[in-house]
């Protein structure tokens, strides 16, 4: 049984409206009087021009894709995207957990990738450094981050390249450290 249909439910030449009625009677489109539910569903299908999805009574998620044919007919494909939706839910849960963790940390945190570009930071870091929002973005190079911080603080750095090199060397150390003022 796929998409609420059983073997023998579908045959060549069958009207799509009859399929919708069968599924409505089985509760595939939700509760209510089957004929009224079928009419609503048919109205939705007639207007469908883009991809859509629906959650079946068993919790699985079916994506519908409609292509219009030159003669006015339609080709409709159905794909079970339940695993994709579950994966997206897990990713969303992890994102919410990470966001809540970062917001509630007493410490400031800055994460850089191997190319010394910003990947992540929390608001506490900005507070500790006295920096305004928007000073840097994800993907900002460390050298540009340091330059922005110095400009914001109104500091002229006579040997800018050396100062940035020293900061980058600090961030390259395997142990935790305190940034010099």
Describe this structure in words.
- By secondary structure, this protein is of the alpha+beta class.
- It is built from six helices and five strands, in the order ααβββαββααα.
- It has helices at residues 16-25, 34-47, 82-103, 123-129, 142-153, 160-171; strands at 52-55, 61-68, 74-80, 110-112, 118-121.
- It has a three-stranded antiparallel sheet, with helices on one face. Strands 4-5 form a two-stranded antiparallel sheet.
- A hairpin with a 5-residue loop joins β1 and β2 (61-68).
- α1 packs across α2 (34-47) and α5 (142-153) packs across α6 (160-171).
- The longest helix has 22 residues, at 82-103.
- The radius of gyration is 28 Å and the shape is elongated.
- The relative contact order is 0.06.
- The model has no long low-confidence stretch (mean pLDDT 83).
């Amino acid at each position: 049984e796929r998409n609420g249909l059983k073997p023998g439910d579908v045959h060549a030449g069958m009207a799509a409206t009859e399929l919708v009625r069968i599924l409505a009677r089985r509760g595939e489109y939700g509760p209510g009087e089957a004929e009224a539910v079928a009419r609503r569903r048919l109205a939705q299908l007639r207007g469908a021009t883009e991809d859509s999805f629906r959650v079946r009574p068993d919790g699985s998620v079916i994506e519908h894709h409609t292509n219009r044919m030159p003669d006015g007919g339609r080709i409709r494909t159905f794909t079970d995207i339940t695993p994709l939706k579950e994966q997206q839910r897990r990713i969303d849960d992890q994102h919410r957990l990470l966001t809540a963790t970062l917001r509630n940390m007493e410490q400031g945190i800055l994460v850089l990738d191997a190319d010394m570009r910003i990947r992540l930071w929390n608001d506490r870091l900005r507070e500790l450094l006295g920096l305004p929002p928007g000073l840097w973005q994800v993907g900002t190079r460390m050298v540009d981050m340091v330059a922005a911080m110095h400009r914001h603080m109104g500091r002229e750095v006579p040997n800018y390249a050396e100062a940035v090199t020293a900061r980058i060397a600090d961030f390259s150390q395997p142990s935790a450290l305190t940034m010099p003022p």
